[in-house]
Design goal:
With 406 residues, the protein is an alpha/beta fold. The protein is built from 13 helices and 15 strands. It is 39% helix and 21% strand. Strands 6-5-4-7-10 form a 5-stranded mixed beta sheet. The protein has a 5-stranded mixed beta sheet with strand order 13-12-11-14-15, sandwiched between helices. Bound molecules: zinc ion (ZN). Zinc ion binds next to helix 7.
Length: 406
């Protein structure tokens, strides 16, 4: 599906070179500015190999010399940093009520951030695929017009995604058996870049790991907020996927069997207590009067206004939701012992009112002292974590050492 965790297994000399190239790129990304001699000393690759790989990476504009030098025992060394500006990727998050698109280049610059309200949950998959393809095509045109090459598009979906990029089930979207990657490739008329699909929580976790407030923390859990609630797990620096890539489906864990009825038929599921639709229904009972909600952003603004104004009922409800959030986080912390749990989506704008209660509940429910060292924080990436993670995933083939096509 995506290759962030699939590093090339050396089987012949070409593969060895790909693997070594990945080592050099990773070293420069983490340690820049650094010299060729630094790379050789710290990776164990010999100097001639490093020199040859760096030459190739400079030629392809994946690495550049800074012009700065550092004197080591009288000898100046030219310093290297990542370039990557000629190469970009698109990440697109598909949610019940919106599309969010982020374009980023390999140097880590964010080139575009677009949101489009779209009633995905009440539209047909065919119409949604058309809208996704339109948005992706416009973004790709903008990026290539700026002189960059688009390497890939990765779409994040709140649901199960199989190895072919098909979506067997995305309840929050009302989808069953949608061959999304294949349909998108067809709608984009077999574009020159890759088109892949992944679970939204996996992509959001990847974005947190690379660009979030806890970037680089190797054991990290990200809880997405949306109509569906899912979990992306970074374990020892890799996305934890499970046997068939379906790990992280926490949305229908029942926290309170006598709680509100869930769409799955059970009671008190995480989604029925913490999902965006459940939160809005609970805090703004009048919203359903105008028919199904197709854009939740204005409703979240209303909740924030009530909370900021100190409305006692709103504050009490948010604290209650915060306790359920802490309960959910405690399950993850007891199970996985992460260093950080980040919450995304609608939990971000509501964080000032959710997190105090959530942290108290988390500490009370985790057996290890100080919640096993886990911090519970709102994502610093806001509502764009999944889309940004999509761009990160689409750039991963380069980071795994494969050169972009000429
Ligand atoms: Zn359920």
């Amino acid at each position: 599906m995506i290759s962030v965790h699939n590093e090339p297994q050396p089987t012949d000399l070409g593969d060895v070179r790909v693997a070594n190239r990945a080592v050099v790129l990773r070293h420069v990304r983490v340690h820049a500015p650094c010299s060729r001699a630094d790379i050789a000393a710290q990776t164990g690759l010999n100097k001639a190999t490093v020199s040859s790989l760096v030459g190739e990476l400079i030629d392809r504009r994946l690495v550049r010399e800074t012009g700065l030098t550092e004197n080591r025992i009288g000898r100046p060394a030219t310093m290297l940093v990542l370039d990557g500006e000629p190469y970009a990727a698109l990440g697109l998050a598909l949610a019940a009520d919106e599309l969010v698109l982020v374009a980023a280049d390999l140097a880590g610059n964010r080139l575009l951030t677009w949101r489009r309200a779209l009633p995905v949950a009440v539209s047909s998959p065919t119409d949604t695929v058309r809208s996704v393809a339109d948005l992706a095509r416009r973004a790709a045109t903008r990026i290539t017009g700026g002189g960059r090459t688009v390497l890939g598009l990765t779409v994040g979906v709140p649901g199960l995604v199989d190895a072919t990029g098909a979506v067997p089930l995305a309840a929050a979207l009302g989808w069953h058996d949608v061959p999304l990657a294949a349909d998108l490739r067809a709608a984009l008329q077999d574009p020159p870049h890759t088109v892949t699909v992944d679970n939204d929580a996996n992509l959001a976790a990847l974005a947190e790991y690379r660009h979030g407030g806890h970037a680089g923390v190797p054991d990290l859990v990200h809880l997405t907020g949306g109509v569906g609630v899912g979990v992306g797990v970074i374990s020892a620096g890799r996305v934890l996927r499970g046997g068939r890539g379906l790990a992280g489906e926490i949305g229908h864990l029942s926290l309170d069997p006598s709680g509100p009825r869930c769409t799955c038929g059970r009671g008190g599921c995480v989604e029925a207590l913490l999902g965006l639709a459940a939160v809005v229904r609970r805090l703004l009972p009048d919203t359903a009067d105008d028919g199904p909600v197709t854009d939740y952003l204005p409703e979240l603004d209303r909740i924030r206004a009530l909370a900021r104004g100190g409305d006692p009922q709103t504050l009490a409800e948010l604290a209650g939701i915060g306790r359920h959030l802490g309960h959910t986080a405690s399950v993850l912390v007891n199970l996985l012992n992460p260093e950080a749990v980040t919450v995304g989506g609608h939990f971000v704008p509501l964080a000032p009112w959710l997190l105090p209660a959530a942290r108290t509940e988390l500490a009370a429910r985790v057996l290890a002292p100080q919640a096993g060292g886990a911090r519970l924080d709102a994502s610093t990436l806001g509502a764009t974590a999944t889309a940004l993670g999509g761009a990160v995933a689409a750039l991963a083939t380069i980071e795994s050492g494969r050169l972009p096509a000429r």
